[in-house]
Each structure stands twice: as C-alpha cells, then as structure tokens.
Amino acid sequence: MDGWRPGSGFFAAPGYVVTCAHVAGSEAGAAVKVQWGTAQLAGKVVAASPAPERGGLWPYPDLAIVRLTDPPAGHPCAWLTDRYPLGGSSLTAVGYSDTYRTVAEPLTSTFAYQGDQTLDGGRMLRLKRDEVTGGMSGGPVLDLAAGGVCAVVKATRFPDTDMGGLATPVGALRLLEPAAYRALIRAHDLFHARDRRWPAGPPSPAAAPWPAGLPRRTQCHLFGMLASSPPPAPEELTAGFHRAAGRFAAAPDLPLREHRDVVTELEALVAQGPVPRAVRYVAALGRAHTGDLGVRLRTWTELLSGMLACDPEDLAEPDEPHPSAPAVRRSVMVRVRPSAVDRDRYHLAMWRYEGPDAVFPAVPETDALPLQEVLDLARARVPGELALLGRTGDDKAMVEFIVPQQLLEQEYDQWRPWSRRPWSRLGRRHPVIVRDLERFEDEELHPPWRRRWSRLTGRTPEPALACNGHRGDHEMLEGWLESRPDLAALVLAGSIRLAPSTAALEVALSCGVPVVLWQRSREDDCAGAPPGPTSSFGCRAREHCPSAQGFAELRRALGQAPPDQWPDRIRQLRNEAVAGEADEQHAQHLVLLWDDPGRQLPDAPLRYAK
Fold first, then answer.
1. Considering only CA atoms, which of 516, 462, 512, 454 is closest in space to residue 489?
2. Rounded to a whole number, what is the largest CA-CA distance in the chain?
3. d(CA 214, CA 260)
4. DSSP letter at 540?
5. What angle, rounded to 10 degrees, do the helices at 234-245 and 371-389 form?
6. What predicted TM-score, i.e. pTM, was given to this entire model?
7. CB contact at 8 A, 526 and 438
8. CA distance 566 to 510
9. CA 431 to centroid of chain Cα atoms
10. What would the pLDDT profile of 272-303 be if each residue is shown by its tens digit?
11. Are strands 331-338 and 165-169 parallel, antiparallel or unpaired?
12. Are 582 and 573 in contact (CB under 8 A)?
C-alpha cells in the first residue's frame, strides 16, 4: 500500500481496506495506491485518525479506512473479532517487507501476546518474541484461538530485534468517523453472512467454548441480520447493553456504534445465568422490531434458546418494580469541580441516581480540562445515561448539575444533545436543576439545609415561596433570612450575574435555603423599587418591582404542585412558553436550584449533627 508512506493493509469488507493512518494518511479523500497481487488498485481515505501535531507516533488509534475506487470482483475479506486475546496467546502478523529484497514481499511473524500497553489513553496489544519489520505497519494480526483478525500492526519496539512492537485492537475502529465505521462493518457482516470462504471455526483448541461465545456461523448469521436493521441511536445501544449486562456492569471502553458492537461487548463479560447476555439482548431486539426483521430475530432467539435448553421466561424483560414500592426520583448527576491547581480547568464526573443506595458511576472523574471541553463531554454523555434510566417508570428522569456558583447560569436546559432531534432541548424533555457544589461538600452547611428542606416538604398545599427584590448587604440579608426560619424557597429578582442577586444567593445558600429560582441574564433587579415596608412575601414595594408580575405568575404556577414536583412544573412552563401558551418573559430561561439534601453521592455523604 502506498499513501502517506509505504505499508500494509487488508480487505475487511468488499471494496474496503483497513490499515494504519500513518500509512494511508489522515486527510479524508486523499488518494491511496493499493497493490493486490499483480493488480494496482486506486482508493481514497474515508476515515482516519488525525496526524500528530509535532511528529512522533500517530495518536491512538492510528487507524484508517480506505475505499477502493474500482474493487476487484469477488475478493476475499478477513473476519474481524473484537475479542481480546488471552495472555500468552500466539498471534500471527502478516505484512509486506523489503528487508530481504528490493521489492516488498509477504512476510509472516509469530508473536506472543504479552499484555496491554496504554498509549494516548487507548489500549494497545504488546507483541513479543519476533520482529516487527519495516513495512508491516497496517497489516493484520490474527488470533488463531478466536479465528479472526484481532488487531492491526502499528509500531516496532526496536528494529532488527525480537522485542516485537504494538498493535491496535480492531475494535478501536469504532473511534473513527461513525458513518464510515458503520458502512465498513455492515458491509463486512453482510459479506460473511453469505460468503463462507473464511474458516467456520478457530483451528485452535484454546478457543473459549460456547456459550461463552457464539459459534462462528451462528454469529455470522446474526450479524448479517443486524446489519440490515435501521441504524440505531447511540443511547439505544447503551441502554440495551446495560439491560442485558446488568446495572453493575462497567460501561464499555469503546463507543457502541452498531448492534454487533453490543453483542461482542456482552460476549466479553463473564458468563452469568442460564442464558448468554448476547442472546438476551437479541431477544429484546426481536420484541422491539416489527415486520420481517422482528420475525427473523425472534426465530433466531427461539432456536438458540432451544439449543441452550433454557426456559423462554429467562429471555423476558426484568420485572417492573412493585407498584407499592416507594417512588424514587431517578436522575443523572453531573458534577463539575474546579481544579485545585488551575482554577480555569475543571474535573467532570457523572453518576446515575436510582436511590440512596443505588448510585452508579457513569463517567469516572476526568483529568483537569478546559471548561468548554468538560461541558461538551457532559453534553455528549447525558443522552446515553438518560436512556439507561428510562427503562422503568413513566416519570422523566431528572438531570442534576452540581457545579460551583460561577457555573450556575450556564444554559444547561438549552442544550441540544440529541443529534437526531436537533430541535429538542434538554430542559424541555427532562427536568433540569442546578445544585451548589460548595454547600454539597461543606458539612457545616448541612444542618440548616436539612431543617429548611423538612419545612418545605412538610407544607401542604401552600409553598413557602418568597421574593427578594430589595438591595442589601450580606449582613442585612442574613438577618432577613434568619428571622424567617420557615422560608425554604426564594425567588431572586434578577440574574445572579448582578450584584444584589449574587449576594442574596450566597446568603440563602449559607442559611440553608434549599430552593432558589431566578431568570437567567435578566436586567430587572428591582433597582427602581423605592424603599418601603416588606410585604408578606418579602419583596419591597411589589407594585414597583419589574419582577412582580413574574413572581406572581410563578407563585401561582407552583402553588398547585407539591415541592417535589417543582422540577417537573418548571419543565412544563418551559414547554408552554415555547408553545405560546405562557408569557415567554416569565417562563423562559428560568433557573431552578432545587437542592434535596438527601440526594447525595457515594463519596459525599451527609452526616447528621450531633
């Protein structure tokens, strides 16, 4: 292969060649020359890893997909296996090398798999006990135990020695451009569903016995059916994986792009129960699809369940919670924490909250990253986590942003995280709330917070909702709030980017007020309100306050709902506003700080005051 530099590659699907990006180049549309036997073939790069900025090894995964302009008819294609080899396995690498002659000739090397090597945050296979010679980059690495190509040769550790080198697992193709990966893998699966030239089973007795892995022909048939299904949404795949794998299974390291990715990830898990997880996943797909595809998937599942001699009930969906079980408000918790070293950088972590004793990590805390990178990562992961929470119950899962005060006015509710529904905003499809990170983690602030929350949730039906529309320093505001121990919900007269509302929020949080509402980036901070007596709602001279009408409408809208339903009511107001059914001035851009002190993370427990 001749592109960016000479190297090797292999047919992975009709008309498609897989190689390394440092061989083919990273520019989409770049021309590549491919030699197969005596034939000279032309191709173009359709997807590839980006080039390094300052030389050196190309960043992970260093893979490229080349589509041939005029592919030869009937050419064979390698079988790709996402299964990682067992430690000490014998792996065979094939490529072209000009080490012994001036013209590159086929070369085979046999390596011992010696474990993994992390490179740029990605998992690489370490090959040892043979030489990775020049020109082998991009060539296939065959795992005879699994019966397929498991990796792509990337680099040599030291030339002219048997110290081996590194290879990229073929599963890392999922990190390339999704549409290009989908086209490649669907063409691959459809080819092998009808073409039986590739050996039907691994020649080595070291292969894992079924049902740890589906038989090759059974898998080919299944993948061929799945390749003809409509393209799945990423959140659907994530939810399906966790339904089949169980809530305690760790999320896959690589993104899920196709149903076959879910199947291979499920097969990699330790066997549990009478039915393989992959079969349970296909059973769920059969129930979800209608028409011919649904019939074929259900028939496949029935045949497999018969071969496994399992009860058909073992393939059913898990039972729903008992109706008498207490309702738990499920949510995705997103925590953004400033770096202790660089306050301009932040750490992101995410959890799925299904109850006080059921809080599951979704995104482990990241390294310190720029704010925009953190927000982009959270936006990309929220849909998948919401899909996982949506498998039971009729209520909308909530999204909680636990952030420092300077990030409370980020437009989280305005996010559009669903690529297939660009018109959908997060705050209109799900209740979105913010929480103060400092109070969340400072145990000294917890006792008054708990007391006011208890008073808020114990009121029926009239909520303790007050408006702070007057100016005042922190000392005056603290006196005002401490003299009102029953006050548990506060409406600010303007954006917290304005000094009076900033002060009111800071004091309210320190005094334990659990619910605060305001309108984002508004200028009406009651600056024109003349001094006067405080009304029964805490707002001076309400008739002169620009926010008086909004406060009255908000109080009326929330007054008919118990406090634990206020996040849903705010979501409803947002939808009514965009539908033209409410006053946009008062319903749009509302921010709800809704802080239930009982909703804590495993690493941030609350303690009762003694």
1. 516
2. 97
3. 12
4. B
5. 60
6. 0.58
7. no
8. 22
9. 19
10. 666 788 888 999 999 888 888 889 998 888 88
11. unpaired
12. yes
